[in-house]
Amino acid sequence: MSEKRQDYISWDEYFMGVAKLAGLRSKDPNSQVGSCIVSPDNKILSIGYNGFPRGCSDDVFPWSREGDELDTKYFYVTHSELNAILNYRGGSLEGSKIYVSLFPCNECSKAIIQSGIREIIYDSDKYGDTPAVIASRKMLDAAGVHYRRYIRSGRELKITV
Ligand SMILES: Nc1ccn([C@H]2C[C@H](O)[C@@H](COP(=O)(O)O)O2)c(=O)n1
Ligand SMILES: [Zn+2]
To answer: At what angle do helices 80-87 and 11-23 cross, to 10 degrees?
Structure first.
């Protein structure tokens, strides 16, 4: 009789892996961000990545980071966390958690708090010193939403598609 596999991926590796895979759908040339919302009993509820809203063409709207504000992506792009929240069609997200490849900004944290998500598991914190993320942490702390940094196992997950 065969024994069960021992090298299966953990829940954290699974959900962060799904979030990062979703991020690969992003057309943003600089930061590809992915999110995966998970129920308290470890069911995937929704997924999102950063991109322009429906009807706003990836080939027409700007991907620039600098220049005239109206010609940069920042006014137009929907962040992965918000997309994951808006993509959910099942009712309440109360008590769920969100895996995200980059720490949420202030705007996404407002949506996270208001939607009832209770925990954030993030990977990169590359904008941790910016006002948007400092404000984000302030609101999450006040609202009692927990956040923890994903501890990378270092395992490379290889899939052939
Ligand atoms: N938590 C976050 C933070 C940022 N994003 C998106 C917004 C942009 O598409 C990109 C950041 O661009 P950068 O300033 O690094 O060139 O990432 C997100 O989806 N979630
Ligand atoms: Zn955001």
So the answer is: 100
Has residue 85 been placed in a domain? Answer: yes
Nearest to 123 by CA among 1, 13, 6: 13
ipTM: 0.99
Packing angle, helices 131-143 and 106-115, rounded to 10: 20
Query: 122 lies in a domain?
Result: yes
With a 6 A CB cut-off, is 65 part of the ligand 1 pocket? yes
Domain contains 64: no
* Closest ligand 1 atom, residue 30 Cα: 16
Active-site entry in 13, 66, 69, 81: 81
DSSP 61: S
Helix segments in the chain, DSSP class H: 11-23, 80-87, 106-115, 131-143
* Residues β-bridged to residue 87: none
Question: Considering its fold, how many domains does the chain have in total?
Answer: 1
Containing structural domain, residue 92: 13-51+80-149
pLDDT tens profile 31-42: 999 999 999 999
CATH of the domain at 108: 3.40.140.10
